[in-house]
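Mods, move this if it's the wrong board.
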Amino acid sequence: MFINYRMKLEVVLIISYLSFLAVGIEIVRKALRIPCYTIAANAGVDAQEVVTRVMQEQPDIGYDALRADYVDMMKAGIIDPTKVSFWC
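Not the wrong board. C-alpha cells:
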C-alpha cells in the first residue's frame, strides 16, 4: 500500500515538474517573438502577420525590414555568425 502511494506521489511530482517546464518553454517561445515583432512594427508593417509568417517558414528564413521581404538571413548577411561585436 505504501509503495503504491509513493509511486503516485512520484508521478504527481513528475507531472508537476513537466507543467512548470512547459510554462518555462512557453515564456521563452513568446520572448523570442518580440524582436521580430518590434522590427516589423518599426518598419510600419503588420507585425503580427510578419511574426506568423516567419514562424511558418524554414528556420533560416526571416523578415528583412529594409527590403520588406522574407529572406534567408545568413545568405542576406543579416545574421553573420563569424562577426563578433565588442562593446566597451
